[in-house]
Write a structure and sequence with these properties.
Two copies of one chain form a homodimer. Chain A is globular and about 60 Å long. A seven-stranded parallel sheet of chain A has the order 3-2-4-1-5-6-7, sandwiched between helices. Chain A has 13 helices and nine strands. Chain A folds into three domains: about 50 residues, no CATH class; about 200 residues, Rossmann fold (3-Layer(aba) Sandwich); about 50 residues, no CATH class. Chain A has about 325 residues and is α/β, with parallel strands linked by helices. Helix content of chain A is about 55%, strand content about 15%. The interface between A and B is large, with 82 and 81 residues.
Amino acid sequence: MTSSADAAARATAETIRGGDIRTAARLMRDLDDGRPAAVAVMRELYRHTGRAFVLGVTGNPGAGKSTVVDALIHFYRQAGKRVGVVAVDPTSPFSGGAILGDRIRMQRHATDPGVFIRSLATRGHLGGLSRSTGDVVAVLDAMGYDVVIIETVGVGQDEVDVVSQAETAVVVTVPGLGDEIQAIKAGILEIADVLVVNKSDREGADRTVRDLVAMLELRGHNAAEVEIVRTVATTGKGIDELAHAIDRHRARQAPSGAVTGEGVAPRIRRRAQATLRELVLDELRRAADATLAARQDLVDAVAQRTTDPYTAADELVRATRARA
Amino acid sequence: MTSSADAAARATAETIRGGDIRTAARLMRDLDDGRPAAVAVMRELYRHTGRAFVLGVTGNPGAGKSTVVDALIHFYRQAGKRVGVVAVDPTSPFSGGAILGDRIRMQRHATDPGVFIRSLATRGHLGGLSRSTGDVVAVLDAMGYDVVIIETVGVGQDEVDVVSQAETAVVVTVPGLGDEIQAIKAGILEIADVLVVNKSDREGADRTVRDLVAMLELRGHNAAEVEIVRTVATTGKGIDELAHAIDRHRARQAPSGAVTGEGVAPRIRRRAQATLRELVLDELRRAADATLAARQDLVDAVAQRTTDPYTAADELVRATRARA
């Protein structure tokens, strides 16, 4: 990196820190495209991160996550905090559309300069969604947003990876879901720091709370610390209590970035590891896809059954590693 | 590979081809653990693959996929075919449990030696689910199962990757889902070769069919060829028609493994590419995780903010590539 490139990266970083949304959006696109200049800007911005509170919100499709997030935005805005939202939609790999209730939120917060909402979708087979999420969180953090909310549909490994980047993970569910959806919940339950039973005015809310308590008992570590909060997000009922439960969870962690006597807090270390892993995998994925594009002869050989995929994959791995 | 190791791999492959379920199950575990000896067995087995019809079934949680798959198993068994099933559950990364309706199917098909069901779950952060699916499909294919069904909850990139390994992709939906779930459908719709409206005795089935037709019109390529079939899988209604729609789709493709005048059929090439890519990414992921485990000093440095994750990731990528 030349010193003039360094200076350019610093200047861009300063523009973004000054609140220039358009420059921030361009940086996010450039990061997705893997441009080295964008990474240089991130190195500059990173020095100004670590101050935002990063909150993850996930849950069953149909549980009303977007409404809960909307109510939390409102709560934090009332408290004078600036809020950034990363709405992650890993379910629409082809159309690249944003399905989470952005439009509704946009209407309510569109004119509020204290709220910034960015939607992310996986794009075809490129992967890297978790990495992009981390990048956007870092940008919003550096821009001075006090709270950054990562919202995602909670149903797969992608989502677990995404939410592992948050300091506090909120999992939203509702009464009366079918068995299959209940079972799905078991997977995301294990990452929950705070549980929300939304639409708790519905029949079956008591039973859902009892089920969650029973599931938590099976979970083991730290389960006793997981609070269960009832909300009716459409009316705002229970949202204050949810925000306080989130605060209590946060307070139980070491302060963000703090180094204790035994080194950094485990959760900060885990987040660092998750971020690093996503960056490394993203880079390796790009290299693998480039190699695969360059070695279509191997794809042909496997398709024509003149070689087996295991032998062809060995050669591709060697070629990927050799790439600059 | 020594010739005695070669001979051992051949012997194991023959045992598996002879129908030894226990040896097959051990091979699948060894593949997941990344044992080179298991890969040698796969190379042997691969020569005997390419005969099974590989069918993917995915769809919304709660759409009744498991019941549809159960009915299809019954249909193919009546036709004298042996059926293998890979039930992929990417939703329970921690517990490793199988949530798809295995238990129900097990009861019905448990005593039928013509049916083999294997459940797969992601295991923590190791990834590689798509790769494992491809391995299991290849093993079942080599064992002589006529039809191999890949069943997965259809909600994320993982599932799209998994289903891309099938020759024909069936997407199951139901009338009366909420808006968010409808939107999720848009993502998996784009990979559908045959669409199923299950529980079609419910109110709203006509509207769901109309919605699907409208969505297909937006899709573009080959949309006209996508048949929409109404089923009530619990009673078996519409299952024959579904099986015939699947057959028609299959017939429109080039025969499995066939080489035409212009080379192999595009779909066979795509499957080869998907399989190769999964094998390569799985290998790179393993290497990255090993590097990350060996370089916890870099995780500490990021956690303590003495370096930024972008610089640390560069170093990890270099170290991963250097690994043998």
